[in-house]
Amino acid sequence: MALYSEHSITIYNSLSSKKELFKPINEGAIGMYVCGPTVYSNVHLGNLRTFMSFDIIFRYFKHLGYKIRYVRNITDAGHLENDADEGEDRIAKKARLEQIEPMEVVQKYTVDFHNILNTFNFLPPSIEPTATGHIIDQIEIIKGILEKGLAYEVNGSVYFDILKYNESNDYGVLSGRNIEDLIHNTRTLEGQTDKKNPQDFALWKKAEPNHIMRWPSPWGLGFPGWHLECTAMSTKYLGEKFDIHGGGMDLKFPHHECEIAQAKAWHNCSPVNYWMHANMLTLNGQKMAKSTGNNILPDEILSGNTKQLSKGFSPSVTRFFMMQAHYRSILDFSNDALVASEKGFLKLMDALKTLKNLEASTTPSDFNVSKWKQGCYAAMNDDFNTPILIAELFNAVKYINQIKDGTNSIDSESLITIRKTMQAFVFDVLGLQELSAVGSHDEKLSETIALLISLRNQARTQKNFALSDQIRDQLEKIGIHLKDGKDGTIFSLD
Length: 494
Ligand code: AMP
Ligand code: ZN
Prior knowledge:
There is one protein chain. The chain is α/β, with parallel strands linked by helices. It folds into 3 domains: 3-278, HUPs (Rossmann fold); 291-429, Isoleucyl-tRNA Synthetase, Domain 1, CATH 1.10.730; 440-493, no CATH class. It contains 16 helices and 17 strands. It has a 4-stranded parallel beta sheet, sandwiched between helices. It has a 4-stranded antiparallel beta sheet with strand order 7-8-9-10. A hairpin with a 3-residue loop joins β5 and β6. The longest helix has 23 residues, at 335-357. It starts with 9 loop residues before the first strand and ends with a strand. Bound molecules: adenosine monophosphate and zinc ion (ZN). The site of adenosine monophosphate has 16 residues, from α1 and β11. The site of zinc ion has 3 residues, from loops.
């Protein structure tokens, strides 16, 4: 019997704003779609947090023995600079600025995304489809919505008619936004005169002559609206109705709201049973974002080469840091929080090493291993509560250390259970890696440079400028550049 039949999971459903018992459409099988990155720049740690939350959910379902199809797309066209169908395509803009082909931009940042996910020990999704690979599917959906009379064509563009849709549907069902407020609050922007109402959204946009990313369609040369790709790809690979759709909280509106409207307009059924939204990673209390520059990149956390960090941290410490908060809570990034996470992670790894060498005895113990194991599952079954799971893992750490110190004992059956359970949750579900397996190379390099920087500072305080200059010049020669600023010295590598 599969493990999942012994567990009932509750999921916080953004659609009902409450926790619901999870029941997949087909017993033992799950379809899950998560909005992927727009590949026009490097992903930052905020993006990584959302993808990591769903990586752990994917891992846990797999651990329970579910057959899961996990679809995470790559947005390689159609995502304009702002959400009101305005501005340049983000990828085309980058291509113009860097004077390269849009597909070179896409290739560069898709490869970068995969490398980062690999470094941080993500499991690959089952399917990773691209928007540009599904233009025909998107055109078919637009035709369907036009046939239903819920979209209109103007001057080579097609827009979704929200007011018409709202006559027999509920636009705002996910985000809780009220159509009257939307009408009241949406400004008519310049260049949006094509729309009947400013809150309508584009299904297809006519490509201006200078727009390089364009495809033929029944309405002329153009490109699909951003929301449409996810409807096309989720339906194609998971069906008209599927189990879980996820993404960051900031995608709830308008992106996911529009996905629901498109699907309902197209085939009359709400596409998703459980909508899940991961909360934001913040830096200095503000959302990490590409556009504002308020972000930390994965490379920066590994090297420690940023003014916010005193040193580098390994991928597993980063994971551990993120898992200490529940996916629906805001998490603030700080050096102190990472230092504390590293301490906790090392303590956990130490206990796992100890666990390998523990010996069973017949002396009675006051720690109930099977109850503890149930507690680990209960934490994850309760809307994937990783901080509670970690607290349970530390109950085991305490017990393991007591056994090592001779103040507690364990019988042989419990020893097997605790080893198996720790292995499953620490490595398989949380995706942490043993110290020897993590990217210790980067860490060692950044610690060595940090040491040299501190020796150089000492030399400067002692007015030994010959030595301080020698350290800087020698590092420069091997491609390590030091830069002094008001917050101290940072370095960059060639
Ligand atoms: P994008 O490439 O901008 O479409 O973002 C990819 C994913 O990262 C989406 O699910 C976003 O909701 C999510 N995301 C963006 N910023 C943050 C953040 N600061 N914290 C957590 N998730 C984020
Ligand atoms: Zn999406």
